[in-house]
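Many introductory courses stop at the sequence. We go one step further.
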Amino acid sequence: MMEYEKVIKKLKSLSNPEAIIGMARYGITPENTCGVSIPNLRKTAKEIGINHKLAQQLWTTNICETRILASIIEDPEMVTEEQIEGWVKEFDYWEICDQCCMNLFEKTEFAYKKAVEWSSREEEFVKRAGFVLMARLAVSDKKADDNKFEKFLPIIKREATDHRNYVKKAVNWALRQMGKRNLNLNRKAINAAKEIQEMDSKSAKWIASDAIRELTSEAVQKKLLGL
């Protein structure tokens, strides 16, 4: 099992200078990134295995890749509500947000609760995390009843006027993923989108139009019908 120092050395050896330059466009400085690709991070995580203690160390290092790696190797069953609240408050980049939600948060017992709570928070990436969780749960929680997702629809409508790019894209994502889950949710998501479309907001109109276009498409309808 890799120790902390070995992991840091490994990440530095996988560093891609061109990736670091590219990430600067998103406000990530060279001091806060190693320039390691997600596939390489996942390969490294596989070599490490689940490791709660190491995940804690990697998160506090405050480097983009160490934090994504922490979200992959963390044990969902050992995560506390205090821990994920601490992590989400430190999100400053969409990829950190999305990776933590996908790799870890959606697997915790707090996933549905936080999806609702965070959706009403003002911080851009905390709010985004709420809707990313909704989108991810719609895909990954295969056994969940429809009513769990129907409860998200009023929240999606409520926040559809948020003009911030990373929020509105996540709201749209959540609506689309819900509507692709089954025929019942497809119908309800389309109806919700039509209501959102009537709002006096450019963000709401974009969210709705994009969702309606996909959810009513021949490809999605055929898949839902099992054709």
